[in-house]
Specification:
It is a multi-pass membrane protein. InterPro entries: O-antigen_ligase-rel_domated (IPR007016), WaaL-like (IPR051533). It comes from Kordia periserrulae. This is O-antigen ligase-like membrane protein. Keywords: Ligase, Membrane, Transmembrane, Transmembrane helix. The protein has 411 residues and is mainly α. It has three domains: 59 residues, no CATH class; 172 residues, no CATH class; 165 residues. Helix content is 72%, strand content 0%. Helix 10 runs parallel beside helix 12. The radius of gyration is 23 Å and the shape is globular.
Length: 411
């Protein structure tokens, strides 16, 4: 009983309620696509009950112009149902993207009082998943391998890298790479404000460790963007604070990581090189590259350039074009901008770009480093994946986007 009382007092003192604890569960389970929706559903239900209770009727519901932009972006799916043929696919898209509406509504009535704790918990969760994936891979390497000798070259071969590295949860490396990059942005923000040398050194080592994991995971877009964000941020923060010793240490770490990659991560380096060459070849490549898939989408865009094909008809039309171009892959177009253009035409793409433009403008005006980098990460990843068409990307974007826009600077 005394322990229960102490726990209650601790939670009240630190502004932690049941809603916040459910929100912690949401940000810690993006990787778990079966568990994450349970936390989201519970979060919305509990907050809804609290909001509509009689003693909470004075709780304010506050909106912003950006709130209505996000609602309009989701509304494209509903409008697109008016002229789509495949109602089943369209309804699936509407239900899958419902968090685009739910989280802005949630943050409009619930004040996150411990945003710093939420972000720290997210970083800790990402780190725990990285350690779990690495330990599971090591276990398979030492106890399940049927190839000998068990040397470094074997460990960094295709058997234990890429999708095989996250095999435990069948996690898509592009999305987990996005999670890692955002964790690095939060860590870099801590470095920007940290006063003690040993704290900065530990955080730099954490970034180095997770960046090596990213290399091992062969998330190509994430690897390139991660390098750019880290180098630019560290150069700016450390030079501005005149921490030249730590800058030299950072350069040493980056050099060591680069040397390690060239010596042992040949698969990662070759795949990045192959991706760049494939993009240069364009639709003339003999393999099913993204450039060929983007090229195949052009006839659909030309025929439906104003309002698109509708919410549910893209997949059928795209696969038909894939067949005409001898593309064997039967997936999406791997480009969120082209996906919006095919579904909702130039009108939909224009609204999509306005949302990002509004985010970047707000981040710059408010000097919101985390939100600015978050938006850049989403925008860049949208070039190579349909980030906002799968649960891993939708919930990640919806959970942090309006929160960072609306409440980050108010903490």
């Amino acid at each position: 009983m005394q322990l229960k009382t102490y726990a209650t007092q601790f939670l009240e003192k630190n502004n932690i309620d049941v809603v916040f604890m459910l929100l912690l569960g949401v940000v810690a389970t993006f990787t778990l696509d079966k568990i994450n929706p349970i936390f989201i559903f519970s979060l919305m239900m509990i907050q809804g009950i609290i909001f509509f209770r009689s003693e909470h009727k004075k709780q304010r519901f506050t909106t912003t112009p950006y709130f209505w932009l996000l609602i309009a972006l989701y509304g494209l799916n509903i409008v697109g149902m008016l002229y789509t043929d495949n109602y089943s696919k369209g309804f699936n898209a509407i239900t899958r993207q419902i968090t685009f509406v739910l989280f802005p509504l949630f943050y409009s009535v619930y004040k996150v009082k411990r945003l710093g704790l939420l972000l720290k918990f997210y970083v800790f969760a990402v780190f725990c998943f990285i350690v779990t994936f690495e330990l599971h891979t090591l276990y398979r390497f030492f106890y399940k391998s049927d190839i000998f000798p068990l040397d470094v070259e074997l460990f960094f071969s295709y058997r234990y890298t890429g999708a095989e590295l996250t095999k435990l949860l069948e996690m898509h490396n592009a999305y987990f790479g996005m999670y890692i990059m955002f964790a690095h942005i939060i860590i870099l923000d801590y470095i920007r404000r940290a006063k003690k040398y040993y704290t900065i050194i530990l955080l730099l080592l954490l970034i180095a460790f997770q960046s090596l994991f990213l290399l091992q995971m062969v998330a190509k877009t994430a690897i390139i963007l991660n390098i750019i964000l880290i180098v630019c941020s560290l150069m700016y923060f450390l030079i501005k604070r005149k921490l030249y010793t730590l800058l030299a240490f950072s350069i040493f770490l980056m050099g060591a990581a680069g040397w390690f990659a060239t010596q042992h991560l040949n698969l990662t380096v070759s795949r990045i090189t192959d991706r760049i060459m494939a993009l240069q070849e364009g639709d003339g490549s003999e393999v099913d590259t993204r450039a060929r898939m983007w090229s195949a989408a052009m006839p659909i865009i030309k025929e439906n350039w104003l309002f698109g094909t509708g919410t549910g008809d893209v997949k059928k039309a795209l696969h038909a074009e894939f067949g005409k171009n001898n593309i064997q892959i039967r997936s999406n177009v791997h480009n969120q901008y082209l996906d919006y253009l095919m579904r909702f035409g130039i009108v939909g793409l224009g609204l999509f770009l306005i949302v990002f433009g509004y985010s970047l403008t707000h981040a710059i005006k408010t000097n919101n480093y985390i939100y600015f980098c978050f938006t850049i990460i989403i925008m860049v990843c949208c070039f190579t994946e349909n980030i906002l068409s799968r649960q891993w990307g939708i919930t990640f974007f919806a959970t942090f986007n309006y929160l960072l826009y609306y409440q980050y600077q108010k903490e």
